[in-house]
Amino acid sequence: MQSEAIVCEVRYRLDPQKRAEFEEYGRAWVRLIERFGGTHYGFFVPRAAPSNTTISFPGKGRHGEADVAVALFGFPNDAAYRRYRIELPLDPEAAAVIERFAEPPFESYERIFLQPLSGQL
Questions:
Q1: Is the dihedral of CA 106, 107, 113, 116 positive or negative?
Q2: Are 84 and 33 in contact (CB under 8 A)?
Q3: Is 56 part of any domain?
Q4: I need a labelling partner for 5 at 20 to 30 A (CA). Which of 34, 78, 96, 115 fits?
Q5: Is residue 121 part of a domain?
Q6: Structure pTM?
Q7: CATH number for the domain that contains residue 28
């Protein structure tokens, strides 16, 4: 069993008609993750790039799409994450959030589990 900290990145494809609802969704999940012992680093929604910016590595990078939002949260280890996943559906506040957003305010999502580089966290 792994005992290293884990971070989950969730990348959402936004529905532009549901931006306000997505923001409500994000605030609810920040509360829940933190209540269950995780650290939520936030939901990040698209914004315009600063003017006169360039790509650091021409030919290798590109500007991202304007309908993608990202959430980052973490748990101290795999066991803490598993405990959160088991206990979450049993919690009345979490159940209400899950029911409220049964029809999600985004088009799709993907997630990836990450670990910090050695010597971090």
A1: negative
A2: yes
A3: no
A4: 96
A5: no
A6: 0.86
A7: 3.30.70.100
Question: Starting from the edge strand earliest in sequence, which strands make up the sheet with 106-114, in order?
Answer: 39-44, 68-75, 6-14, 106-114
DSSP code per residue over the chain: ---S-EEEEEEEEE-GGGHHHHHHHHHHHHHHHHHTT-EEEEEE---PPPTT---SSTTT--PPPTTEEEEEEEESSHHHHHHHHHHGGGSHHHHHHHHHTSS-SEEEEEEEEE-PPTT--
Number of folded domains that form the chain: 1
Specify the residue for token string 């999502």. Answer: 109
Q: Which of 20, 1, 11 is nearest to 80 (CA)?
A: 1
Parent domain of 87: 6-50+67-114
The answer to whether residue 120 is domain-embedded is no
Q: For every one of its 121 residues, what pLDDT tens digit does the chain have, with 9 covering 90 and above? A: 446 889 999 999 999 999 999 999 999 999 999 999 999 999 999 998 888 888 889 889 888 888 999 999 999 999 999 999 999 999 999 999 999 999 999 999 999 999 878 766 5
